[in-house]
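quick one before i forget lol
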Amino acid sequence: MSAVTKYLLQMNEHSYIISKTLLLQWCFPILLVGVFLLLLGLPFLCLPKGVYWLIAAILLLPLIPILESFLLAPAYALAGRFTYYSPLLFATKSPQGIDLHVGTLYDYITQLRWIERGIQSQRHAMLLVLQGLLSICDAVAEGRLSAQNEITASSYFFSNRSVEKLGFTLNSGSFEVKLNLALVYLSLVLRLSIIRGRWCLPDLKRIRCIHTTAGELLQQRSRIAKMLAHLQSKNRVASNEQSNE
């Protein structure tokens, strides 16, 4: 068995590249990468050189994070840049440990139903996040993730109360974190608008950096499990009420 085949078979089980056919596992991300490159290059192929290229580059610049978040997520998962702990929670490596992210635009579109936008989508998203945190706890307990690893994230998805319940601490965040959020602001607007069912402009001044360690998160496992069970119960009640209407 080749190294590539072994890697693909050991890919994170929460990746949305669900096909068991290795050819399709490769073809789908490559196809989306091709679409990404085509959309970026098409204006420069169609427009005459000079000032038109400059204008096209300026107009495309704010759209690149949106296209990347929507079209390159499968390729990043395949390449190992993204490690998914649930369908809506993935991690990227950092010098101190891992950075957590609550889904790409692709994940929001594929995991959240537009018809359920609003409270239902928020509950479903939170459910998937809690499932991901439990998966991280299990990875620490099983030795697949070091307890000393630092875990950081931004608080745009969570309220301060939720963050504290999950065992995270808050700080104002570094300039680098705030700059990165500013660069992907349009993508952030779309993701929050999808989940809340209305146009939402996040206030970057109120966004905080949240921090814990893998070991400290493991100590919160029982609390996270209770929160997940409580949310699942709410979802069942809501589903039963809808079916009775």
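fyi The chain has a mean pLDDT of 81.
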